[in-house]
Amino acid sequence: MQQSINMLDFRKSPGNIINEVYYNKKKIILERGKKPMAVMVPVDLYKKLFLDEDIEIYTKQRVGEFKKEDKLAKGLSAKLKKLLK
Questions:
Q1: What's the superkingdom here (predicted)?
Q2: Which domains does the chain have, with CATH numbers?
Q3: Rounded CA gap, 20 and 3, in Å?
Q4: Computed over its alpha carbons, how large is the radius of gyration of the chain?
Q5: What is the per-residue pLDDT across 13-68, written as a single tens digit (0 to 9) for each?
Q6: Is the separation of the CB atoms in 49 and 37 below 8 Å?
Q7: What distance in Å separates the CA atoms of residue 72 and residue 44, rounded to the nearest whole number?
Q8: CA atoms of 37 and 77, how far apart (whole Å)
Q9: pLDDT for 24
Q10: What is the pLDDT of residue 73?
Q11: 28 and 36 in contact (C-beta within 8 Å)?
């Protein structure tokens, strides 16, 4: 479950909100004047998303390398373009 909370409400009871995130596995967006500023997620989800060694973050450089490696042969590429017209 995901919900939004403004910073003023967060400041009133940060402990309760952190407990909701940790124990009830809630994802909470912290807002300042209707503008999303930060996200609170359970530690397990954070680890899964950002600390897992199997996950590769695709930078522009990596995407460029993939595109170079994944090019079709010129003849096949031309045939494919013809078919898609």
A1: Bacteria
A2: 2-84 (3.40.1620.10)
A3: 11
A4: 22
A5: 999 999 999 999 999 999 999 899 999 999 998 888 777 665 566 667 777 777 77
A6: no
A7: 41
A8: 45
A9: 93
A10: 60
A11: no
Residue tagged 């045939």 (tokens): 79
Q: Name the one residue in this structure whose structure tokens are 């994944």.
A: 70
Q: In this structure, what token pair is assigned to residue 48?
A: 């899964």
User: According to the model, what pLDDT value does residue 47 have?
Assistant: 84
Instruction: Please tell me the distance from the alpha carbon of residue 36 to that of residue 71, in angstroms, as a whole number.
Output: 40
What global pTM score does this model have? 0.57
Q: Which residue has the tokens 């402990």?
A: 15
Bridging pattern class, strands 35-40 and 2-6: unpaired
**Residue 2 bridge partners (DSSP):** 27
Sequence-distant (6+) residues with CB within 8 A of 27 are 1, 2, 3, 21, 39, 40, 41, 42, 45
